[in-house]
Amino acid sequence: MRISLAEQIREIAQVAPKDFDPDELHFGQEEQDKDNDAATEHYLLELGPSALRKAQDSLSDPKYSGKRVSRTQLLADVDEQPPLSDSQVEDSESDDQSQASQEDESDTSEPSPRLVPQPDAAQTLNQTRQDDQKKGLAVSRQLSLWESLLDARIRFQKVLAASNLFPSHAEFDSLVEQTSTQDAIHALLDETLLLSEDLFQLQEYLLETNGEIAPPPRKRIKIDQGGDYAAAVSSYSGALADIESAYHPHLVQTLSKWSNKIQSVAPSVLLPSNRNAFTKSSRNEPKNAVQLISESFSDQTSWTKMVDRTRVYRGKGERIGSGFSQHGERDPEVFDDTDFYQQLLRDVIDARNGGSGSQDWIQAQKERKKRKVVDTKASKGRKIRYEVQAKLQNFMVPIPVTNGWHEEQIDELFSSLLGKGFQEDDINTPGQEEQPTRAPVDLTGFRVFG
């Protein structure tokens, strides 16, 4: 706050110290701040609300405008409400007390989060480790069971290949007239029916263990040697169809569930590949196994082509009888699933080699189809053809000398190279005859080592 010149002179002329209140040190500053706030408020009032606020202002609508009401009308509305009776007052008080008691009980019943025992970190880690071990053991058992089933199916391929060599139905009776042949066929049928009975019992046991599927009733057949084999085969075929129809819904549901799980974790497993036409699609979108099978069955062209491929004999050996079609021709009495068998073999190889077998097979197919690089300038002697050989290190082996020099020859050589003899040759020892000296030889200017 500024003061005039006269006030400044008067303050200088006063000798006594000026008495002031410490609480009023910032009094002038507060007044100045108030003046600034008033000026700012006056400026904002003159400026008015912005266009953006006016656009968003919904209270300016006429429907939100108030209505003038007198104090008499306001008090009249309050008086119109009927007073509460004594019973209502007591009920309201009791409700308030019960609500307060319920709140107190809820506060006491609910334990404090600090008192809840927290799980031990070591115990949690140990439980997780045990769960992982159980899961690993279950996966190991499933893989061993799968490999056992694959091995059984691969061994059964020999039986299927041998059945394709049987004669046709028209020539069968004429070729099995001998008694020894009929005995062998009856023995084969007996063993086959016994195996079928064991497989049916295994299927029924698995269905009963599962609990979700009730095995259909089946007529027990007594297998006698030389019995009615046609009726037995027909009965077993009908029982097999009943079991498959009862198990099919559960099979589709289980296959779809696990296929979706695999697709969510590793979608590349169900993506189309170049060597497997079964998983090809126009949009290249991953689909589960059930959708792929349904699409394959719905396409009549691909279905007919697949069935015709199974009716072509591609095995080894000549079929029994005459009048059979040659290799590559369709025969309705032949069932050849070589494609499926090769896929099973590929799965076994991948399981044994850790998945590298299929990659090696694909790489080998690419190398076969790849065009060889040929240098066109190397023909007609226009380019030197050579091959770089690796360096030969320590190629020559040491050869021992059979007829080596003796000590006197070695001494003589070194003495001649050094241009002097040994000193002991010049000293005459007693009892030793003097050696005759050699005559000097003219070397005609030739010197050895100087």
From TrEMBL:
**Region annotation (Disordered) ranges:** 14-120
Q: Which residues form the AATF leucine zipper-containing domain?
A: 132-261
State which residue ranges cross the membrane.
none
Provide the coiled-coil residue spans: none
Which GO terms of the cellular component aspect does the record hold? nucleolus
| Compositionally biased intervals (Acidic residues) | 88-108
Q: Which residues form the Apoptosis-antagonizing transcription factor C-terminal domain?
A: 341-418
Q: Which InterPro entries match?
A: AATF, AATF/Bfr2, AATF_C
Pfam families hit by this protein:
AATF-Che1, TRAUB
Q: Where is the composition biased (Basic and acidic residues)?
A: 18-44
Q: Which domain of life is it from?
A: Eukaryota
Indicate what this protein is called per its UniProt record. Answer: Protein BFR2
